[in-house]
């Protein structure tokens, strides 16, 4: 008869050994919740060394994606405390970005008798599709069309394509504007760089003048965004001292609203929310947007609509806004 007493027995897992992975998961949840909360709330305080500041600023809204991952870890850890801890990054994200993603359609004023519809797009140099973008934006009912990344040939094609419907235009460097209404006082702006990537003009409507700024900010890369920062700062200074009551600035700012270099211009002008809410990412167009580099900013005007629309074959979506003109 075999002696089973001498056979090795399988080791049993004690409750203590089973709890170790769960404790580690709880620790990861706590650490992840703290990191996510700090990154969301204080991303502009991170030193911009080796381009880290630019990357973190632009990624700030996306840090919210850490929360579902942490939630899964909290559920696996079977810790009620972990679930409570997750309220910290959730509330931090909501406080930081919640007001900016509320649909404009919930609070927008009613359209007045006289409105102005403006559209803007970076048409992407070299595509040869500037005229296509312009015609599609015109078909959407735009009164003013601003384009960036133009060259002389594409600007001429836009003017020819829009024809008599947009008899007023002004082009300087890589930016241009075409309008159904007269343009006065048009001038180029170098914004501290010495080359022409911005303009200012007055759109003269039946209800008064609107000061319009069109900008194509310099490119921003992790270790090369000084020129862009200078342009945005100079634009803010120019607009801040502009005596005009009704002001609109639009174009490709090459900066997201969470970028620390965008903070000053957004304190001088206001960016309205999107009609349907969320962030209104404009780039890249395909397969899906990740950043909003193109903006419409206003002062002294009611915005009744603000949205993104596809036009042409650019890698940027166009932005389009409707504002109420002041009563004459």
UniProtKB/TrEMBL annotation:
Residues 137-316 form the Endonuclease/exonuclease/phosphatase domain. The chain crosses the membrane at residues 24-44, 59-76, 83-106. Keywords: Endonuclease, Exonuclease, Hydrolase, Membrane, Nuclease, Transmembrane, Transmembrane helix. InterPro entries: Endo/exonu/phosph_ase_sf (IPR036691), Endo/exonuclease/phosphatase (IPR005135). Signal peptide: none annotated. One of its GO terms (molecular function) is exonuclease activity. This is Endonuclease/exonuclease/phosphatase family protein. It comes from Paeniglutamicibacter gangotriensis. The lineage of its organism: Bacteria, Bacillati, Actinomycetota, Actinomycetes, Micrococcales.
């Amino acid at each position: 008869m075999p002696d089973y007493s001498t056979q090795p027995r399988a080791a049993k897992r004690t409750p203590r050994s089973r709890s170790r992975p769960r404790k580690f998961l709880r620790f990861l949840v706590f650490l992840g919740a703290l990191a996510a909360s700090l990154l969301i709330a204080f991303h502009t305080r991170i030193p911009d060394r080796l381009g880290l500041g630019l990357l973190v600023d632009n990624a700030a809204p996306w840090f919210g994606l850490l929360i579902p991952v942490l939630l899964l870890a909290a559920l696996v850890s079977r810790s009620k405390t972990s679930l409570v801890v997750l309220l910290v990054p959730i509330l931090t994200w909501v406080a930081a970005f919640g007001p900016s993603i509320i649909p404009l359609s919930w609070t927008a004023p009613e359209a007045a008798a006289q409105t102005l519809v403006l559209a803007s797009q970076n048409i992407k140099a070299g595509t040869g599709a500037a005229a296509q973008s312009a015609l599609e934006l015109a078909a959407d009912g735009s009164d003013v069309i601003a384009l960036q990344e133009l060259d002389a040939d594409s600007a001429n094609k836009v003017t020819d394509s829009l024809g008599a419907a947009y008899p007023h235009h002004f082009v300087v460097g890589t930016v241009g504007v075409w309008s159904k209404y007269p343009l006065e006082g048009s001038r180029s702006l170098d914004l501290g760089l010495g080359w022409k990537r911005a303009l200012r003009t007055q759109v003269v409507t039946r209800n008064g003048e609107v000061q319009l700024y069109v900008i194509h900010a310099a490119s921003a890369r992790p270790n090369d965004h000084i020129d862009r920062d200078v342009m945005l700062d100079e634009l803010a200074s120019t607009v801040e001292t502009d005596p005009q009551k009704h002001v609109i600035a639009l174009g490709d700012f090459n900066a997201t609203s969470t970028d620390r270099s965008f903070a000053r211009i957004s304190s001088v002008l206001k960016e309205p929310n999107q009609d349907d809410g969320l962030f209104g990412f404009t780039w890249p167009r395909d397969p899906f947007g990740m950043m909003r580099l193109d903006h419409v900013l206003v002062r002294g005007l009611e915005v009744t609509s603000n949205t993104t629309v596809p036009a042409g074959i650019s890698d940027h979506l166009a932005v389009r806004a409707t504002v109420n003109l002041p009563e004459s």
